[in-house]
Design goal:
By secondary structure, this protein is an alpha/beta fold. It has helices spanning 2-9, 23-34, 39-56, 62-72, 76-86, 96-113, 117-124, 140-149, 151-154, 158-161, 190-204, 222-232, 251-259, 280-290, 324-336, 349-362, 369-383, 388-398, and strands at 164-168, 171-174, 212-216, 238-242, 264-269, 299-305, 340-344. It folds into three domains: 2-149, no CATH class; 164-344, Rossmann fold; 349-398. Strands 2-1-4-5-6-3-7 form a seven-stranded mixed β-sheet. Helix 16 (349-362) crosses helix 17 (369-383). The termini are far apart.
Length: 399
């Protein structure tokens, strides 16, 4: 066990792992063993280490917990790779020595993760109860090198484990249970969805892509379309970061943070509308304008709104006929900064019932068509009108 402690202490490129769980608790236990602490103190340290494993993973798998800690950690090797992607002309190359050191240390991590609870129990010479943990062999070198070479698609840290994020007080926070909507669950609106899909595919291929405004009636699937499109392109390295309207003042700082990550992002602003005197209008305008100068190479902005022009218009805005045209032009100027504007209008009866039928088939609901459609119409009447959202809610009520 002394050899394992020395292996951990010798880490250089991945030295930060020593201060992260599970290695931190493992080192504490190993040091107590090496220093000849009492059996009670060793048992306590061992129990704490296994407790940490169960907190990290329900299966208490040492190798898996150590791999997750490695993926979540930043290190000089990873930083060199990221810099070479973001700024290839000014970044320092990964030297042969650095690569060899990384490979050797990753092999050491594989050896450490191969330890079993039996190995530790044997060293303590104790016949009483001691908790077990699991371990499975992971080739850290092969897996981490593959991740590094494909970091633009697979991501690292939280971006490798989560698809959707949210801005909270200026910080990027993962959404642990995102909306599971996918393209196969969206029906009708094929033309609108196709425009967003093509724009997103062009963005991922490095082709010119536009910021997108999805506008129209409530409940027509604007937000669901954005989330489903991002989910479709997850394997290509696309992630969604939702920016609540209340966080618009942090828009510029969020863009700076995302620009330092070698992945592609949809910066999503849902249900946008402004009063005419809202100071945040200028911030959004300037960011949208900056797209033309290449200031956001790895992100596009997708907004949804029930209003095409985003800014609420009052009768007072039209009271002065001399300045009416200027006022209207100012209100239109924000939406016109989106290179692609896609209308989602309220479905007519035939379209609404088509959505209902397809959702019923998807959920394998066996109901007479006449009864299904009549129930859908009654549900829409109570819900305030036909929409894709009402169709989904109706089918969910039948499920």
């Amino acid at each position: 066990m002394t050899d394992k402690l020395r292996q951990i202490d010798s880490l250089a490129l991945f030295r930060g792992l020593r201060d992260k769980e599970p290695l931190r608790s493992l080192c504490d236990f190993l040091r107590k063993m090496e220093a000849g602490y009492t059996i009670d103190e060793m048992i306590s340290a061992y129990g704490h280490f296994v407790s940490v494993l169960y907190e990290l993973r329900s299966d208490a798998n040492l190798a898996a917990a150590l791999w997750e800690a490695l993926v979540d950690s930043e290190n000089p090797f990873l930083k060199c790779k990221i810099d070479s992607i973001l700024d290839p002309e000014n970044s320092r190359e990964i030297s042969t020595l650095m690569r060899l050191t990384a490979e050797r240390e990753l092999d050491l991590l594989s050896e450490i993760s191969d330890c079993t609870s039996y190995d530790f129990k044997e060293q303590m010479y104790y016949d009483g109860y001691l908790p077990d943990f699991n371990s499975s062999h992971i080739d850290f070198k092969e897996r981490y090198m593959r991740l590094i070479e494909n970091i633009e698609r697979e991501g690292y840290g939280i971006y490798s484990r989560f698809l959707m994020f949210r801005i909270e007080k200026g910080e990027i926070v993962p959404v642990e249970h995102p909306d599971p909507i996918c393209e196969e669950e969206l029906f009708c609106y094929e033309r609108q969805r196709g425009l967003v899909l093509k724009n997103t595919a062009d963005f991922l291929k490095g082709k010119p892509a536009a910021d997108v405004l999805l506008y129209g009636d409530a409940g027509t699937g604007k937000s669901s379309t954005v989330k489903a499109v991002v989910r479709k392109f997850r394997e290509a390295g696309l992630r969604l970061v939702e920016l609540p309207k209340s966080e618009l003042e942090n828009l510029s700082s969020v863009i700076v943070k995302l620009s330092k990550i070698p992945m592609k992002f949809v910066l999503f602003i849902d249900d946008v509308s402004f009063e005419s005197n809202d100071e945040r209008i200028g911030s959004l305008k300037s960011v949208l304008e900056g797209a033309a100068s290449g200031g956001r190479k790895n992100m596009v902005i997708y907004c949804t709104s029930n209003r095409r022009h985003l800014i609420k218009e009052s009768f007072a805005d039209r009271s002065d006929e001399i300045h009416t045209s200027d006022t209207i032009a100012e209100q239109m100027s924000l939406s016109e900064r989106f290179g692609l504007r896609v209308l989602f209008d309220k479905p007519n009866k035939d379209t609404f019932l088509e959505i209902v039928r397809k959702l019923a088939a998807l959920k394998r609901i066996s109901v007479d068509d006449e009864e299904l459609c009549a129930g859908a119409e009654r549900f829409a009447l109570r819900g305030g009108g036909r929409s894709a959202r009402l169709a989904r809610q109706y089918i969910d009520s039948l499920v």
